Amino acid sequence: MLPPAKISGTTLEKTVIADGCIINASRIEHSVIGIRSRIGYGSTVVSCYIMGSDYYETIDDINQDQNKGVPPIGIGKRCYLRNCIIDKNCRIGDDVRLNGGPHLANTETDLYVIKEGIIVTKKGAVFPNGYVV
Q1: Is 95 left (phi over 0), alpha (psi -120 to 50) or beta?
Q2: Domain boundaries, given as residue ranges, for the chain
Q3: How far is C-alpha 101 from the geometric centre of its chain's CA atoms?
Q4: Which pLDDT score is estimated for 1?
Q5: pTM, whole model, 2 decimals?
Q6: In this model, does residue 117 exceed pLDDT 90?
Q7: Nearest-5° Cα angle at 5, 124 to 82
Q8: How high is the pLDDT of residue 81?
Q9: Is 77 a residue whose pLDDT tops 90?
Q10: Mean pLDDT of the chain
């Protein structure tokens, strides 16, 4: 059994949020936020499905990751996500922009696939700070 979601300072519109989430985003609309999702301050999520994570990271795990330059599981600060499917256990750093839409061609990389304008991240993908699609 998980605790209820913790949401601070976030405008929600037509959004479903699962248990155990920690959300400090600026705005979330037309989205589904999965179990144990973490979304940082100032982030915007529009028309996305975020699957969440299989486990919580401890404070020690987060500190060790930061020392290695790896973002914690979840979505970092000041991110912008639109038309995305974020698979489980993804690590999205600060200031990342994943802006899906018809302007993007179908493609596949090590981190994500774009199909009909929708960005689909691969399970456990790590997007460093400032990454842009």
Answers
A1: left
A2: 6-127
A3: 17
A4: 80
A5: 0.93
A6: yes
A7: 50
A8: 97
A9: yes
A10: 95
Contact between 65 and 49 under an 8 Å Cβ cutoff? The reply is no
Name the CATH superfamily housing domain 6-127. Hexapeptide repeat proteins (2.160.10.10)
Q: Which helix (H) or strand (E) holds 11?
A: strand 11-13
Phi-psi region of 102 (alpha: psi -120 to 50; beta: other; left: phi over 0): alpha
Q: Tokens 């601070």 identify what position?
A: 8
Tokens of residue 112, six digits: 């994500």
Tokens standing for residue 128: 């460093």
pLDDT for 83:
97
